[in-house]
Amino acid sequence: MIETIQWTDSGVVMIDQTRLPREETYVTCTDYKQVAEAIRSMVIRGAPAIGVAAAMGIALGMQQAESAAEFDEICDTLARTRPTAVNLFWAIERMRRLYSELQARPIEEIRAKLVSEAQQIRLEDIAINECIGRNGAPLIPDGKSVLTHCNAGALATAGYGTALGVIRAAVASGKKIDVFADETRPFLQGARLTVWELQHDNIPATLITDNMAGHFLHSGRIGCVVVGADRIAANGDVANKIGTYSVAVLAKENSVPFYVAAPISTLDLSLTNGDQIPIEQRAAEEVTHVQGVPVAPDGTTVENPAFDVTPNRYVTAIVTERGVARPPYVESLRKLVT
Length: 338
Ligand code: MRU
Known about the structure:
The chain is of the alpha/beta class. 40% of the residues lie in helices and 18% in strands. The strands form four sheets. The protein has a seven-stranded mixed sheet with strand order 6-5-4-7-10-15-16, sandwiched between helices. A four-stranded mixed sheet has the order 11-8-9-14, covered by helices on one side.
């Protein structure tokens, strides 16, 4: 099993996703600022995984805090790391709620309970993903290829994955499928992480560059698309890795179902539509360089939004641990949370 993140006696241990697939190395964060930096620099990434990391960062920070007054600063530092995935804020809020219930208790008890809450969030995430997998597997056509974008696998979660969880569950149920993985420029999560993960589980994977997706969606070989999500608005608009929107439009054009797999913690029903989702802008070097090597002239002007929003009309269904939501999403998503 791939261990994305773990709480240990020496600190929060994460597989270093910036080094995969060349090296399988692990980073140990020994204070909360290191956890925040690991999220920002994408040593750990993926919406549910950064939620777990933030919860563990808070627990770690409070082990070392000299006074309870440091709690807010620890939470705020972790909240400033990445703006789009709502799971980060969901996890911080859950830790804040627990802390406010415990505030009058002795500091040793508060520390212990924050650690067990963070560990609980990690374990729940794995169980939720297995459930998303069970709910989504029946949607996957047998004997066809499945296209995915970015990495919504074990590495993007505490384990098993959301989109890749659906694929894992479909394979476990006996379906003969293989995966087309978009390379996912500029950070190459598809090439570096999704293909690595699928090879690890012996699930056949074919790597394509992002601009090949339309060609293969038109070819009749792709039975469906399954992706993860970073934030889903009340109307079913989905923020996910940049390039997801293009894949969704191409899927609809070619009558290929486009499924989003995500936990309930990825829903942000406080937002009426996807235009309100904050989109992270990342460094120009991610676009001008590939793995540290320049591919554009010095001084090139760059835009680097890390996510885009797929309007709900392109989304065939949203698979969660509580069931499968279909349009109209304003009603079906609300029903899942009540
Ligand atoms: O920038 P990243 O790598 O954190 O982006 C990850 C994605 O966009 C994933 O598809 C999303 O977080 C879902 S992960 C289960």
